[in-house]
C-alpha cells in the first residue's frame, strides 16, 4: 500500500512556459494545437523571450516556487495531509501528467487549483475539464477551486502592492502628477460575453475591491495580450487606453495586472517593455505593481482555497 494513499493530492495548474529557448517552438506548436508557427511567428515570440530573459530562462522557476510555497503552507497548517503536483496546459508536465503522477503514488482523492484567480470557461474551465477527464479515467475523486478572486488575503496582497506602487510613482513622476491606476488582465475572445462567462465581472470585482481598500479614486480596467485571431477580442487594449488617457491629461499610470499572479511574458514584455515604451512616447510615466509570485498572503489564499474545496 502506498504511503500517499491516505493523502489528498493537490494538482496545481498553470499555463506553462518553455524550460529553455530550445523549447519555444514546441511550446508555440502546442498552443497552436499542433500547427507549427511560421518562421515569422516563431521569430517574434523568440525575440520577445530574448528581450526579457536574454536567453536565460528563469520563468519556469516562478511556477515551481509557487507550487513549493503552497506545499510549505499546507504542511504548516495540515502536516502530512496534502501533497502537491504540477500540471501545465502547454508544457511538460502537462495536466494529464500531473494526474497520472498522483495515480502512480496511490492518491485516490484530490483537489485541483489554477494559478489564476478568475474563472472563465475558456481558461480555468478548460484546465478543470482536462484534469477531471483524466482523474475520472484513473479513478481519482477530484474537486476543484473554480475562483478565488475576492479572497480577503488576495485582496490584501494586491492592495499592498498598489499602495507601494503609487508611492514609487509619486517619487518618479512627482507627487502632483495627475495619476491613474489601470487594472489589467489577459484578454479573451469577445464571444465569452454571449456565453454569460463570469471572467469580466470577476475581474471588475477584484479591481473595485483593491481600489477601495487602497483608497484609489481614479482607476479603470483595461485589457492586454490579446491573441491574433480573426475573432474580435475584449478591449480596449492597454496601448489604446494609454493613448486615450493621455488626451485626458493623465501624467502618471500605475499598472496593476490583477489577472496574473507571477512574472512572465505578458507582464515582463507586454507591460514592462511594450506598454512602457508607448507611455514614454506619449509623455506618461508608467510603473507596474510587483507580481504576487510566492507572496505569503497569496500562498495562504491558495492553501485556504484548497482546504475549503477538500472538505
UniProtKB/TrEMBL annotation:
Where does this polypeptide localize?
A: Cytoplasm
Does DNA repair show up as a keyword for this record? no
Please, which domain of life does this record's source organism belong to? Bacteria
Which of the seven top EC classes does this enzyme belong to?
A: lyase
InterPro entries hit by this protein: Ferrochelatase (IPR001015), Ferrochelatase_AS (IPR019772), Ferrochelatase_C (IPR033644), Ferrochelatase_N (IPR033659)
Q: What are the binding positions for Fe(2+) in this chain?
A: 186, 266
The pathway to which it is assigned is: Porphyrin-containing compound metabolism; protoheme biosynthesis
- Spell out the molecular function terms from Gene Ontology: ferrochelatase activity; metal ion binding
Assigned keywords, A-Z: Cytoplasm, Heme biosynthesis, Iron, Lyase, Metal-binding, Porphyrin biosynthesis
**Pfam families with a match to the protein in the record:** Ferrochelatase
Please list the GO biological process terms of this entry.
Answer: heme biosynthetic process
Where on this chain does Fe-coproporphyrin III bind? 15, 32, 48-49, 127
State the EC number(s). 4.99.1.9
Q: Could you state one GO cellular component term attached to this entry? A: cytoplasm
* Catalytic activity of the protein: Fe-coproporphyrin III + 2 H(+) = coproporphyrin III + Fe(2+)
Q: Does the keyword DNA-binding apply?
A: no
**Taking the first listed entry, what is the main subcellular location of this protein, grouped into a coarse class?**
cytoplasm
Which CDD domains does this entry report, sorted A to Z?
Ferrochelatase_C (cd00419), Ferrochelatase_N (cd03411)
Q: Which PANTHER family match?
A: FERROCHELATASE, FERROCHELATASE, MITOCHONDRIAL
Function according to Swiss-Prot or TrEMBL: Involved in coproporphyrin-dependent heme b biosynthesis. Catalyzes the insertion of ferrous iron into coproporphyrin III to form Fe-coproporphyrin III.
Q: Which family does the UniProt entry place this protein in? A: Belongs to the ferrochelatase family.
Q: What is this protein called?
A: Coproporphyrin III ferrochelatase
The gene name reads: cpfC
